[in-house]
Design goal:
Length: 236
């Protein structure tokens, strides 16, 4: 598979961080946990390395793309606990960039761990593709989903992941003690999509959604929920 290019790497928000070393990016990532641009900058810097490792081990392009996203999700979750060595070593040929070998080595180790331990679904059960969303946006949509009101999150997941109709969702919720009509489900679903966008870091909205119309955003984010790993389907 050819290494993909990611448009966000050319975005002004990310380009402005190009002079920072890995250690500086990590420090800012930790100091500003509500910002998404530092993780995205690390992704842009090292996605070719991670993608190359994964594509040499995955059985199919679909599984490779999904594992690529899962690996970056794991990296995002682990970055806050990473402590780079104080003595930064610069990669030969990367003068002026201050790219540290220690971060690259850590990323390679994390990628190898994900390759060896990930239990990937069958191809037909995977609903993620790089054409739909870059891993940083996908990761932050998942985090935003966790921030939604539990009822909104449940409605969004049942509609987008399990493809239930408004009537079926209303019936399930009524069986669980929530008196909601099918017409109200549709209203709640639309509101959940708006709240999902609002829960994203502001810079992530700027990088990934800034050039999109409101209609495109309304369709993109809820659709992405279907590709986020979920527990078992609710019993109906």
């Amino acid at each position: 598979m050819q290494i993909p290019s990611f448009p966000e790497c050319n975005h002004a928000v990310i380009q402005q961080l190009g002079h920072l070393s890995d250690r500086e990016l990590l420090q800012r990532f930790k100091a500003e946990p509500e910002a998404g641009r530092y993780f995205t900058a690390i992704f842009c810097r090292y996605s070719p390395v991670v993608f190359s490792l994964i594509t040499h081990s995955a059985r199919s392009p679909v599984q490779a793309e999904y594992l690529f996203a899962l690996t970056w999700r794991h990296i995002l979750n682990e970055l806050s606990g990473l402590d780079l060595e104080a003595a930064e070593v610069t990669v030969a040929g990367e003068t002026g960039q201050g790219r540290s070998l220690s971060l690259q080595s850590w990323l390679i180790n994390v990628t190898a761990l994900c390759i060896n331990q990930a239990a990937l679904p069958e191809v037909e059960d995977i609903h993620y593709s790089l054409n739909q969303a870059s891993p940083p946006l996908w990761c932050y949509v998942e985090r935003s989903l966790d921030r939604l009101d539990p009822l909104e999150r449940l409605i969004l997941v049942m509609a987008q992941t399990f493809r239930w109709s408004d009537t079926r969702i209303a019936a399930y919720l009524q069986a669980e003690g929530e008196r909601i009509a099918p017409t109200e489900v549709a209203v709640r679903l639309k509101q959940a999509g708006h709240n999902l966008e609002a829960a994203l870091p502001e810079d992530i909205r700027t990088i990934y959604l800034g050039a999109l119309s409101a209609e495109a955003t309304d369709a993109l984010l809820p659709d992405m929920v279907a590709s986020v790993p979920m527990p078992e389907k609710p019993i109906s």
